[in-house]
Specification:
Number of helices: 7
CATH class of one domain: Mainly Alpha
Number of strands: 2
Strand content: 5-15%
CATH architecture of one domain: Orthogonal Bundle
Helix content: 40-55%
Distance between the termini: 32 Å
Strand order of the largest sheet: 1-2
CATH topology of one domain: Cytochrome Bc1 Complex, Chain D, domain 2
Radius of gyration: 16 Å
Order of helices and strands: EEHHHHHHH
Shape: globular
Largest sheet: 2 strands, antiparallel
CATH superfamily of one domain: Cytochrome c-like domain
């Protein structure tokens, strides 16, 4: 793989041929996804109009995840993983939340399977992570139970 890490941002910079075996155009998709993920969007909720967790999770997904994992949740083969039937999404909700918020790769996901790195969304609070995790766990054909902010709070605060 031909990639350099920018020391100021810790982001990978890919060169042509950086994604061997990936479909044509995959480098462009990877770069566009990385650019979209560089400016995470906090939800713009009005205090007088709280959204349901499902709607909030869907908005968080659309604003922060769709560039890489696609609207269908199926990702880009060889570049970004599918969320449909993903053991990470369907498994331990605390591990999923730590991956989203802190960038801690779950032990159940082997390193090096994809040439890209998922950005972490450190601005998310437990309620945001729970809404997003619930959305992921109940969308794209997934059928896992919902996640509560209270169940993630300790996992996100602990070390």
């Amino acid at each position: 793989m031909h990639a350099m890490v920018n020391p100021r941002s810790s982001m990978r910079v890919f060169s042509p041929g950086a994604l061997p075996g990936a479909p044509p155009g995959a480098l462009i998709v990877a770069l566009l996804g990385s650019l979209a993920a560089c400016s995470p969007s906090a939800p713009s909720e009005r205090a007088d109009a709280p959204a349901s967790d499902a709607a909030r999770g869907a908005r968080l997904y659309d604003a922060n995840c769709v560039a890489c994992h696609q609207q269908s949740g199926r990702g880009v083969p060889g570049v970004y993983p599918s969320l449909a039937g993903s053991p990470v999404v369907l498994g331990d909700p605390e591990g999923l939340a730590r991956w989203i918020v802190r960038g801690e790769r779950p032990a159940s996901l082997a390193a090096g399977r994809y040439p890209t790195v998922m950005p972490h969304f450190g601005w998310m609070k437990a309620a945001d992570a729970a809404a997003l995790a619930t959305y992921l766990r109940s969308s794209f054909g997934n059928g896992a139970p919902p996640v509560t902010a209270a169940s993630l709070q300790a996992a996100l605060e602990g070390s």
